[in-house]
Amino acid sequence: MMEQATEQIPKSLVYEMVGGKPIYYQGYKDYLTGNKQMDEIMGSSKLQALIVAELIYLLRSFYGNEYLIFTNELGLRFGKNAWRAADIAVIKSDLVEDLNDQYLDIPPELVIEIDTKADLQEVRNPLGYYHEKTEDLIQFGVAKVVWIFTDTRKVLIAEQGNNAWRIYDWEDQLEITEGLAIDMKRIANRGK
After folding, report:
1. Cβ-contact 114, 87 below 8 angstroms
2. Which of 75, 76, 138, 151 lies 20 to 30 angstroms, CA to CA, from 18?
């Protein structure tokens, strides 16, 4: 994690907080040196944005009004000084008492991540970041975690109570929740 004094870094550049230690947005150093604007760091690529939009449409159509579909790096609060961000989170509507400016402190049923916006250069084990975040989400109570990787065109699916995480190619039919299969290749090619 980051070793320099955190009081010099704006809180808005903190992507996640793990064990009281910040994980910053990828490119935060470029912002600090004046080489990038805040929106250049926090923004998504066209492909990432398309995937999120298509998945939200599919999820909303599948779940209907019984569930809320959250997006936009929803904060999931695990405890004091411990929270993670979620690209997409699906939770039963009746579990969310009110909509306010606080992070969600109850586990969604499904979390979908598209790549990461975390600066992994500052993380001790960059590959371990994905494993640790997935474990944190599952221990929090998330039933299923889906990682979509745009560079490698792979999808990782981890489920509560199942130690065998599965990795798929985009060409594979993926059941992201019971009864809802997605075709990542079709989704990614929609923008062409």
Report:
1. yes
2. 151
